[in-house]
## 1
Amino acid sequence: MELLLGAAITLGILGMVFGIGLAIASDRFAVKVDPRIDSINEVLPGANCGACGQPGCGGFAQAVVEGKAPVSGCTVGQAAVAKLVANIMGVKFENRERVIAVVMCHARGVKNKFAYNGIKDCRAANIVGGGFLGCDYGCLGLGTCVEACKFEAMYMGEDGLSKVIEERCTGCGKCAAVCPRKLISILPESKMVHVRCKSLDKGAVAKKICQDSCIACKQCEKICPYGAIHVQNNLAVTDYNKCTSCGKCVEVCPNRTIINFARERSLSRHTLTV
Amino acid sequence: MTTLVKSKLKTFIGGIHPEDDGKLLTKSKKEVSSPLPKTVYLFMSQHIGAPCKPIVKKGDMVKKGQLVGEAQGFVSANVHSSISGKVVDVVPWQHPVTGIKSPAVIIERTEDDSWIEGANEDFDTDLISPEEIKQRIQSAGIVGLGGATFPTHVKLTPPKDKVIDTVVMNGAECEPYLTCDYWLMLDKPHEIIQGLKFVMKCLGCKKAHIGIEANKEDVYSLFKDILSNEPQIKIDLMEAKYPQGAEHQLIKALLNHEFKPTQLPLEVGAIVINVGTAFAVYEAVKFKKPLIERLVTVTGNGVENPQNFLVRLGTPIKQLLEEAKATASINKIIFGGPMMGIAQGNLDTAVTVKGTGGILVLKDARQWQSHACIRCGRCIDACPYGLNPSELSIMCEAKEFNLAIENNVMECKECGCCSYICPAKRPIVHLIKFAKAEIAKQRVKA
């Protein structure tokens, strides 16, 4: 009995000494963590995609608290998350429009230059003889962008071109970064009229290669009431700051190069639900 | 498969040698014909370094040997017209090596084929100064004709703190199928040796060492006879093995020096020149003749008449295929040899450049199905640079580029031994090339 009591007292005293020591140490060497970092981290999507330019969601939360990143910096969470982050930070939130990826190639009837039997990756294929596709600017269709998408918002269409499922797209830009031919643009959702061609070949050459290529006829440039579309280096280029998506250029485009996504969108939503 | 017989000949560790190296196809063909092209396409970038600036415009008349592309900066090489005629256009044209459209001067031949004044005259070169030699090489636009196309005058300007004591001349011609260097050595041994002496004089070197592969013993005995009373130039027979003609392997075999794959031969006091380059140096220094033509081996089972041609720069390969009587059923055309050559995707646009030593035409090129790595380790035995191609290819396939850098992917010279030997037919070199291209892109961004 005495033995038991002695052990209990010894341990009790030891426990008290260590307890006091720990209490002092935790007070003296405390690392001050801003509670806002944790609460921001909780409202972020948690995909760690890095689209904000920070190393994952935790890094972004810290950067926001340190003032190194804007509250609306999370491209994935878009307006909803930006609002929550702004609340936590106690600042006013200004609405930022949702952005999505648009594939700027609509190739039809493009023949291959040669048979390619190499690695199934657009970047690897593009360094072999300048790419196997007849068009030097078009979509190679090996699906590197689809592989890069972390939100399953892209798929390879039956026509061999990559497609964006707009509902799922978060505008993170991973697909645009890996495309060796720079065919994917990240644009505001409200912009619906796009020149879906990147060919800089002269009109006559481009037309032979692809049925849907821009032939630089300048019809769109002439009809645009806002001066938003111009032909540069044999290609019509849209200035999205001026474009109002009125769709006048779509009507005059002789080659079906310029497309109004408003129509396409309703179609794609329909096919998706089926 | 490869021969693993230990031989007493000088060589290096690793490498491969196919049982049938295809050289017999063109070795016995004595005649060398020189077809005159109707039109030539002269790329402004036929070398490593800055592309030239075109100094002619549409409609200009040019003479053979006239400067059409001016070198931009020191690491660059002039481009001269290879025919006399009229400039049709200066347009971007698909480059046969890079596959990217880059500026080219297109010249259509007129009837005469006369040299521009001042080129192709016989000069007395007994008392020529080293600076004059270098200047003539630079203005002639000479690049390494072994295939690397590094401007020769840059090679002849070593940094001041480096002493070059040996010029190594590469007569290995280790790529299967090619015989253009073999024929040049048989045909112009005296000129090649004179060219080598010009290079030695330019660098102030007292020693030179020539390496020739054992499958060219006739060339070896010919050179041995000529050099019998020239003790400063040594000549050795080396094992016939690919890549015996690469700088590192050549210096290991001949001088027994080793240096890192990322270093240049001047680290061990040597420079390496190809026999083709030596001949071009001779012509440039002796006659002030610019580099406008070279020997090209057109060979393979896709042509009925495989042979060596003396080809003007920028000749469309369609014409060469006609001369060599290409069969209708060809399915692969490679610029260069089968190991490091570049397969061509477009017959209409492909033209020869300074680095084109061979055109390999095949009618039964197989399309391999590649499989997962079976970890046999044959590529590790074959790699002449001591890398682990098996692991590297797996890293590149998984796009783990940083891991690949840690495992020295940048030291790979893309010689192709690993891909050749791989029983799973993995596209190892393609994977490594892809990774290197991606790493280069990342470095540009950073």
Note: Residues 90 and 105 of chain B are 5 Å apart (CA to CA).
## 2
Amino acid sequence: MRKKRYGFIFFLIPIFLLLVVFRYYPLFSAVYHSFTTWNVISSKFVGFQNYVLLFKDNLFIASLRNIFIYILVSIIIITVMAIIGAELIFNLRSKLSAFWKYLFVVPMIVPYTVFILIWKFIYNPYLGILNGSLNLIGLSSLTQPWLGSPQTALYAVAFVGFPFFSTAQFLVILSSLQNLDRSILESAKLDGATTLKRVFKIDLPLIMDKIVLIIILTIIWNFQAFTNFYLLTFGGPGSSTLVPGLYLYQMAFENNSMGYACAIGVIMAIIALILVFITQKIEQLIIK
Amino acid sequence: MFKRKLPLIIVIALLSIFAVISLYPIFFIFITSFKNNTEFYGNFWGFPSKLRWSNYSQIAGNVLTWLKNSGIYSLLNVLLDLTIASLAAYAFVRYNFKYKEIVFYLIIGLLMMPGILLVVPMFVEVTKWHGINNIWALILPWTASDVPLGVIILRRFFQSEPIELFESAEIDGASEFRIFTQIAIPLAKPALTTVAILDILFTVNDFVWPMLIMTNNSDKPLAVGILQYTGATGSLTWGNIFAAYSLAMIPMIVVFALVARNFVNAITEGAIK
């Protein structure tokens, strides 16, 4: 077997043609142009000028601060809610659990733009479902312009999608619980462990690797957040919800500063690599 | 004695509360899609007094066009990705060659890259080649961003296929391409389904690239076109807007009803990869 020699080239030509034109070349171009001032028509080499400017740019620094808060809040609420949801469903009999699982997945198939626009309406200060519900149950004092106030806007964006049961993170936790060895759980039951005790002493330690995985996924995905911020706040009010992806977009397509935008993108790529690297190191420590 | 199990009634109650939070907005959008502005403001929480289909007919032309575009673009992307990714995955499983590992990481390493970084240089290239509103300028970058995940999933699946099948076909004198199309691909249906579902989700949900490339209203995919319906202005009522959202959700709900199990598996597998 495997006597064939060069046939593999034929199988790999299409993918490399595609990737060279639409991945590697643009990547090279982005890195190169991050050292230039660039608009669509011309570019001029300026060395590290864009990077020097970036680290003095208060808006860029604000965008980094915002994205870290956003990621941190997301990690906490998504992970906690995914575990709560998966445990609740896991404690049901199998037929019932399938029903609930599919029910909770439904919002996931709403086209993402529509999903975000629905949340924009939920948060609408005058007509929205959230303030409307608060008024209805006599909590008018809590009503807010959720997306319109610098104190709440970033957190409001992070809570889009609550209770986060229609997420890949939830499905990963649920499937890893359902794949656990039943005999261990049965013996815990015989020992008289309460549900809560079982969750913390047995379930969670056994799926720790998957919990770390969903945290890594949340970091990678949310670090690149763009569409939700673009549609909900466009970075405002002020710069309270400006994030790097959005700032890159604004620089490139509204300011026509494409070299500067590329420098933002390169920094983003480097930070993404570092974040994943750190999380994987932490994962190795925990799982050992 | 203390309770060993969380009582079923509490579990169901909690799940119901979460289900309401999760699904009520969709339900609200749907019932409000039949209201006129008077009812929207005057009877915010209630049901509409009658089914005003005119809310739908006023927006259907646009929304159906965008949905059709999304469908065509997704289909083309799926076909391209399945072809290109399965060819590549097959090479990694059936051939041994120098630097195989490096070539593999050259492909899957792309998954770590923030997509928006490449949007700027690609947009400039597309502009130079007069590719704005060109369907391939939209789709090929999608395929390029989707193939790495496709290669991972398909490679793992090909590795699990029984090697004797390939070997006996080889002894029978079948060419490698024939083994690929006649044996490997038909067996790989579950993996191909997974990749196709993930591709459809990516293409239907992607926003920034189609917003930049597709500027003609009649060429826009749904994700971009729907931005026309964000607030009631002029003759546009909230009923119209929510009719547009409801109509936009229907095709995916139909697809979901048909392949719910595959869908859940695809998301889980795509995340674990």
Note: The longest strand of chain A covers residues 36-38.
